[in-house]
Amino acid sequence: MFRTSTLLSLFTLSLFHLASTASHAHIGRDIAIPLAKRGSLTKPDGRFDVEKATAARLRLERKHRQNLINAERHLGRDILSTLSSDAFTHTRKSGGIALTDQEEDLLWTGTIAIGTPPQKFKVDFDTGSSDLWIPSSKCLTCSPSHRAYQASRSSTSKLENGTFSIHYADNSTSSGPIYTDTVTVGGVTVTGQFLSAVTKESSQLSQEPTDGVLGLAWPSISELNSNPFFLMAMNQSAVKEGAFAFKLASKGSELFIGGTNKKLYTGPIEYHGIVAQDYWQIGNASVSLNGTAISSKRKTIIDSGTTLMGASPSAVAQFYARINGSRQDPDLGGYYSFPCDPTPAVSLSWGGRDWKIDPVLFNLGDSGVPGECVGALVPTDLGPRVGNDTWLLGDTFMKNVYTVFSVEKQSIGFAKLA
Ligand SMILES: *[C@@H]1O[C@H](CO)[C@@H](O)[C@H](O)[C@H]1NC(C)=O
Ligand SMILES: *[C@@H]1O[C@H](CO)[C@@H](O)[C@H](O)[C@H]1NC(C)=O
Ligand SMILES: *[C@@H]1O[C@H](CO)[C@@H](O)[C@H](O)[C@H]1NC(C)=O
Ligand SMILES: *[C@@H]1O[C@H](CO)[C@@H](O)[C@H](O)[C@H]1NC(C)=O
Ligand SMILES: *[C@@H]1O[C@H](CO)[C@@H](O)[C@H](O)[C@H]1NC(C)=O
Ligand SMILES: *[C@@H]1O[C@H](CO)[C@@H](O)[C@H](O)[C@H]1NC(C)=O
Ligand SMILES: *[C@@H]1O[C@H](CO)[C@@H](O)[C@H](O)[C@H]1NC(C)=O
User: Locate the Peptidase A1 domain: which residues (predicted)?
Assistant: First the structure.
């Protein structure tokens, strides 16, 4: 079986050509950051970085468009019913993985171990995709700064049938064989985990500050068509609880595997049931500006592997129409600018608390026009498969809350950060 995927160019705004078996494989991310700090989308002088922001926007579209195609192919079965009954016994481990804030909020990475004896990798933990891949030691085009998987040095490594590959819109490709091996994340060990070791890496990939990606979404969007790490961990009774949780911040960021870290949040966790077993997606969201709901009954995808927030061009136009003086600026790669002072107070609610986005996180920096700043809500064309009522909430949103992804409850939970 040959598995292919499309990773769309970061540098073209043309419509995406989708191969029938294309992949959402997602490479790293960058993060919207406070103006006061130096970060990926804001230059040292406080100016908005158009080139990087255009790339960030395209990554977001690319990944989610492909996710949808995979989901259409695989949806329909209830994955939880295929788990062993032991998956729900709560006797095993849980643990936190410290996430390192790379290059002042460029992205957060954490370390995982693959193989026997363990080989360590720095990965992006991505709730918006479902596969694990890292560079292979046989990769000649991979960056020397990335760590590489040596299958021959792992006694538990097993070569599986098929090829995993990622095609870019610029026609470059990254691809590699598929293995199963033992994988440890935060002290939780899984055997027989499907993964790909990429033997050919495009220059776009080799520039990423992370070795690879560990996907945490549901199997229906897996390009390897296999169970992602966390589901495997549950099925092997390797985790204490069927949930994992994120705190994303400049300091003390953490992915907690097998439950929640009670030190990192206060008060109750507000849970909302997911729409389907594909993305981590919940419905009935309303979006408010200055405390007034301007959009309701939206679907929202909560994606740790996406920098910003995205919605359909029409939904984004409606949003900024409520902010006097805002406009879409072709010079800003299609991003919108708004009068900097005051930065709009944006919040989201799913019928419970109002979860506020810190205005500092909504502001991506000085647009180049005096008094104008760039907003972190970006028009995102997800293609005809997604309704125009779906919003993608990346790190701009997740940095404001403690976010729990519960497989067992089939829910996403939010709590106040401690
Ligand atoms: C869980 O493990 C059982 C064997 O114990 C296997 O039959 C089943 O397919 C697995 N399900 C998932 C989702 O991994
Ligand atoms: C790989 O494919 C071959 C031929 O289709 C089959 O005989 C073999 O069992 C497969 N191996 C695995 C590990 O699936
Ligand atoms: C990629 O290949 C296709 C088909 O060969 C071609 O039409 C297209 O122009 C190429 N794109 C680039 C950016 O070279
Ligand atoms: C979504 O599309 C429908 C039909 O094209 C349109 O009536 C509606 O106004 C759109 N909603 C948004 C938020 O763009
Ligand atoms: C939000 O409220 C502030 C303070 O009252 C006001 O200056 C600003 O214009 C409001 N913005 C929007 C978009 O309603
Ligand atoms: C936007 O401008 C209109 C017309 O000038 C004014 O009536 C309205 O109050 C303004 N809204 C905000 C939020 O400032
Ligand atoms: C949906 O959200 C509204 C408020 O925006 C709330 O009143 C309602 O109870 C919610 N519905 C569900 C099913 O949660």
Answer: 108-415
Q: What angle do CA 407, 191, 260 make, to 5 degrees?
A: 35
- DSSP code of residue 15: P
Please name the residues in contact with 83: beta carbons below 8 A apart, sequence gap of 6 or more. Answer: 231, 234, 235
pLDDT tens per residue across span 147-164: 999 999 999 999 999 988
pTM: 0.83
Asked if 393 and 280 touch (Cβ cutoff 8 Å), the reply is no
180 beta partners: 158, 194
Is the CB of 79 within 6 Å of ligand 1? yes
Ligand 1 pocket check for 31: Cβ under 6 Å: no
All domains of the chain in start order, with CATH: 264-417 (2.40.70.10)
φ, ψ of residue 293 to 5 degrees: the values are -65, 125
The token duo for 412 is 């996403």
On the question of pLDDT at 68 being above 80, the answer is: no
Cα dist from 31 to 68, 210, 304, whole Å: 23, 14, 10
Q: Are 68 and 301 in contact (CB under 8 A)?
A: no
Sign of the CA dihedral with 396 first, then 402, 408, and 411 last? negative
Residue pair 223/3 in contact by the 8 Å Cβ criterion: yes
| Distance between Cα 381 and ligand 3 center (Å) | 22
The catalytic site residues sit at: 126, 303
Task: Say which residue the tokens 């849980």 belong to.
Answer: 94
Closest ligand by atom to 411 CA: 7
Q: Atom 14 of ligand 3 has which residue's CA nearest to it?
A: 170
Map tokens 């909504």 to a residue: 362
- Counting from 1 in the atom list of ligand 3, the atom nearest the Cα of 171 is 1
CB 208 within 8 A of CB 55: no
Cα distances from 253 to residues 33, 40, 159, 248, in angstroms, run 15, 18, 34, 5
* Tens digits of residue pLDDT in 320-365: 999 999 999 888 888 999 999 988 999 999 999 999 999 988 998 8
State the CB neighbour count (10 A cutoff) for residue 268: 12
Per the rule left: phi > 0, alpha: psi between -120 and 50, beta: everything else, 98 is: beta
- Cα gap 394→402, rounded to integer Å: 13
Which stretches of 216-291 are assigned E, i.e. beta strand?
243-247, 254-257, 265-273, 281-289
* Distance from C-alpha of 79 to C-alpha of 231, rounded to nearest angstrom: 9
Give Cβ neighbours of residue 262 (< 8 Å, ≥ 6 apart): none
